[in-house]
Design goal:
single chain; binds coenzyme A; 23% strand; 18 helices; binds adenosine monophosphate; 2 domains
């Protein structure tokens, strides 16, 4: 008889060693762990110390060795190039082993870093798994980030090799990845020895003879590499995410805990079985892509889908349904923004009616708040459960979800459901007192965090402690605020820092402000996230100019928009800014962003008692009205 949700959850938090130890047995270890959890050095908890394993072996070779070599491991579906390719576990293992051989031949060893800056092509996942095979640490940088962001990551993790591609394809345009890479290497203080470039037919890149080699060239005459046994606690990857400053945080994930936790989530959270097709329509540059395109489906023996396209426009809002139907997808995982895009173009679901969904069971949404309208629309159109779940780059897998493989509870719109086993979630006030049901506060998770969550920040143990573990001793500070209802359902309402969420992409307003202030005419700036029907939120800039500036305001706005696109990247979707005389501040000089956000969104607001000069709020409102914001106000 299967256990109830509360029994499983209780066991996971009361006896985590037994809980995770039993799950760990399902994977392959060259030698078993000494203990399941080392809690001798909090907050640096370590899972399965002493265990020796290889994540790539568990994701690929294990299935081949167990007789599943001819089953499909990876489907690459690229409407932007008109390509569909399928790879069996054996074929994919061989490609990964060969590319690992190519990296090894260039001196890449256990612990070395490799940056991967690629579009959504199978070679991106091959490169990730090849690093895992060698025990090298990959750091995938999302293609929508521009050269400066890539350079910051190069300087932070100092990669021996960078793997990239000649181009990507976005909205029918060719994106010159190689140009962006070359500029990043020029900007970075640290210079990688070798760049391996996958040449795509759509545009071939010019290679630098001293530094670059093509993907093909790199593999000529190379012997495939075997899996290198690594410690469970050796890092598998670094994934940079926005912090409160311009300097991104390199989240470090281990090998052992990560593979154990991810495999378990496939059964428990997503309720999929080995052999079924799991599709995360995200990008390998994000945590969702790491966990649920590259690793979890393969660790569980499922087929994963690498999708190079958009929910709309490649070529139409029926693309998702074609893929689900054509590849027999059982579970789709994407961000609500993708469904808002589809709903906008096909509100009646006419494209949906054209396809057969016989295998499709569940839609999972994450990355941003799932608005009830979108969830209800998806339920009505697809006739399957639509499950919102909450997680973060730091955790690598869901903190709250309606676990479909344990004891699914009713859906409550606006809630990401209950804490996933492994996480002891609480809502507290600043004094760390637990708040009653329904009351908003800081969401924290009792330590230790379960396996697969962040180990530390790359070269930043102190930053790790200060950012996450200091304000609420004994707890992980999620920086999300919300409440828990009387049934244990968690409602994620907002961030408590200056992170905004644009189309499911996490951005730091501080980083955008830093770019705005680079403009010679700008004295001061503020960036807030304003509501957007499609992307959930989009950034809006406020600029205070230096005295005596005579550049036309529209030129300044055009320039700062270009700055952000050039330096942070198109992913910031920074397209709007207004010039104001002053920024509203408290008497101690703190910018009143929350009030500005309310004004911009046309929501009711009260004049904060600490404001320096209330008249500024009217000026802000007038400036916003000139660009169509701040329409209603109290
Ligand atoms: N390489 C280069 N540029 C990229 C890129 C990549 N990998 N990904 C996005 N960009 C560019 C886009 O082309 C766009 O450029 P533009 O300003 O020239 O139009 C810009 O970055 C913003 O991208 P995005 O916010 O994704 O907007 P979009 O208009 O391209 O697509 C959605 C909007 C909603 C369709 C898209 O964001 C989406 O499918 N989101 C859901 C899935 C997802 O990725 N979730 C995130 C993690 S779960
Ligand atoms: P990222 O690290 O990019 O995955 O972004 C994590 C942040 O996205 C979280 O801290 C939340 O603010 C937000 N988020 C993710 N999933 C959800 C969700 N289901 N509901 C509300 N917010 C979410």
């Amino acid at each position: 008889m299967s256990l109830s949700y509360s029994a499983v959850h209780r066991q996971s938090v009361e006896n985590p060693e037994q809980f995770w130890g039993e799950i760990g047995e399902k994977l392959h270890w060259y030698s078993k762990w000494d203990k399941v959890l080392d809690d001798s050095n909090p907050p640096f908890y370590r899972w399965f110390p002493g265990g020796v394993t290889n994540t790539c072996y568990n994701a690929l070779d294990r299935h081949v060795d167990e007789g599943r070599g001819n089953d499909i491991a990876v489907i690459y579906d690229s409407p932007v190039t008109g390509t569909i390719e399928k790879y069996t576990f054996r074929e994919f293992r061989d490609k990964v082993a060969l590319f690992a051989g190519a990296l090894k031949a260039r001196g890449v060893r256990k612990g070395d870093r490799v940056i991967i800056y690629m579009p959504m092509i199978p070679q991106a996942v091959i490169a990730m798994l090849a690093c895992a095979r060698l025990g090298a640490i990959h750091s995938v940088v999302f293609g929508g980030f521009a050269s400066h962001e890539l350079a910051v990551r190069i300087d932070d993790c100092k990669p021996k090799v960078i793997v990239s591609a000649s181009c990507g394809i976005e909205h029918g345009k060719i994106i010159d990845y190689k140009r962006l890479l070359d500029f990043a290497v020029e900007l970075a203080h640290f210079k990688p020895e070798i760049c391996i470039i996958y040449q795509r037919e759509q545009m071939k890149a010019q290679l630098d003879e001293d530094r670059d080699m093509s993907w093909k060239q790199a593999q000529l005459g190379i012997a495939p590499a075997q899996c290198v046994p690594v410690e469970s606690t050796d890092p598998l990857y670094i994934l940079y995410t926005s912090g409160t400053t311009g300097q991104p945080k390199g989240i470090v994930r281990d090998n052992g805990g990560h593979m154990v936790a991810l495999k378990w989530t496939m059964e428990s959270v997503y309720n999929v079985k080995p052999g079924e097709v799991f599709w995360a329509a995200s990008d390998v540059g994000w945590v969702v892509g790491h966990s649920y395109i590259a690793y979890a489906p393969l660790l569980h023996g499922c087929t994963t889908v690498i999708f190079e396209g958009k929910p709309v426009g490649t070529p139409d809002p029926g693309t998702f349904w074609r893929i689900i139907s054509e590849h027999d997808v059982s579970v789709l995982f994407t961000a609500p923004t993708a469904f808002r895009a589809i709903k906008k173009e096909d509100p009646e679901g006419k494209y949906i009616a054209r396809y057969n969904f016989s295998k499709f069971r569940t839609l999972f949404l994450a990355g941003e708040r799932a608005d009830p309208d979108t969830v209800k629309w998806a339920e009505k159109q697809l006739q399957v459960p639509v499950i919102d779940h909450w997680w973060q780059t730091e955790t690598g897998w869901a903190i709250a979800a309606n676990c479909q493989g344990i004891e699914p509870g009713p859906v409550k719109y606006g809630s990401a459901s209950r804490a996933v086993p492994g996480y002891d979630v609480k809502v507290v006030n600043a004094e760390l007192e637990e708040l009653p049901a329904g009351q908003m506060g800081d969401i924290v998770v009792k330590l230790p965090l379960p396996p697969g969550t962040m180990m530390t920040i790359w070269k930043g143990d102190n930053r790790f402690k200060e950012n996450y573990m200091t304000n609420f001793p004994g707890y992980y500070q999620t920086s999300d605020a919300g409440y828990i209802d009387e049934d244990g359902y968690i409602y994620i309402m907002s961030r408590t820092d200056d992170i905004i969420n644009v189309a499911g992409h996490r951005l730091s307003t501080g980083a955008i402000e830093a770019e705005l202030c680079e403009h010679p005419d700008v004295a001061e700036s503020a960036v807030i996230g304003v509501a957007d029907d499609l992307k959930g939120e989009i950034p809006m800039g406020f600029l205070v100019l230096k005295n005596g500036v005579d550049t036309p305001p529209e030129m300044i706005i055009k320039h700062v928009i270009e700055y952000v696109r050039e330096n942070i990247g198109p992913v910031a979707s920074f397209k709007q800014a207004v010039i104001v005389n002053r920024l509203p501040k408290t008497r101690s000089g703190k910018i009143l962003r929350a009030t500005m956000r309310k004004i911009a969104n046309g929501e009711e607001y009260t004049v904060p008692p600490t404001i320096d000069d209330p008249a500024i709020l009217d000026e802000i409102s007038e400036a916003l009205q000139t660009i169509g914001y701040a329409k209603k106000r109290s």
